[in-house]
Amino acid sequence: MDYAERDTGDEYAEGVPCWADAMLPDVEGGKRFYGELFGWTFDEGAGPEYGHYTQAYVDGRAVAALAPKADGRMPTVWTVYLATPDAAALAGRIKAAGGSMVTEVMTVGPFGTMGLAADPEGAVFGLWQAGTHRGFGLTQAPGAFCWTEVYSRDKDRVDPFYEGVFGYRGHDLDLSGVAFRTWSPAGSEPGPDTAVGGRQLFPAADAVGARSADGYSTPEMPPHFLVYFTVADADATTGAATRLGGRALMPPTDIPYGRMSVIRDNQGAVFAVLQD
């Protein structure tokens, strides 16, 4: 099967997902889970000055990272980082547009500059201004990042925020009853072929206990980003995740762009897998 594997270059346009990491209570446990699930290998981890940050690799190319939670009150979660040439300027635009900075912009040694932001509904995403760490070394290949989307309640608040801050070009889709909007980088022709992420709406707020047409989201969920990884076989990967102590929040399901499932790992971090 052709996965349209991408060996990434040195530069990401502003707003393009360029990295993802998981904050976990137990990084060694995470290495065992994701190492078996995706075939990831890991470096020895950075020193204490960088929070013992541990990068994951597929065929020697960086695909993600695992980091220990510095505080048990922090969420166990996957975070996607959006590229920017100027993190400080981007943070200013985020605040001016009604978002906020959860973690103010900071320099991470020679590796780059990062921050954590929240959109007007509270969905958290990262900012990354590259230094020596450029971001993903591989995408759109088994075990590597392939997609992200934000789950939102009010498109009239969220769409103008992202499209104003990043200059995204929006394109609305109806995916089997799911109201979905794809976002393409500034200057590109909007549509699925150029999209780098998207926005999906939760079920109606008065439909408590209901699930949306995607089979995953519920009205009670907080707004959030969902990070996707490519896999060769969504059913086999979901079965393996369950065997390793994870849980399928959405069983393998056919969608117009492949077959996907949503998984909670054995420590509580949620992600999705997509078979092209």
From TrEMBL:
Transmembrane feature ranges: none
UniProt-recorded name of the protein: Hydrolase
Source taxonomy: Bacteria, Bacillati, Actinomycetota, Actinomycetes, Kitasatosporales
UniProt xrefs under InterPro entries: Anthracycline_SecMetBiosynth, Glyas_Bleomycin-R_OHBP_Dase, Glyas_Fos-R_dOase_dom, VOC_core
Domain VOC, first and last residues per copy: 16-130, 144-276
Keywords: Hydrolase
Organism: Streptomyces alfalfae
Pfam families (UniProt xref): Glyoxalase
A GO molecular-function annotation: hydrolase activity
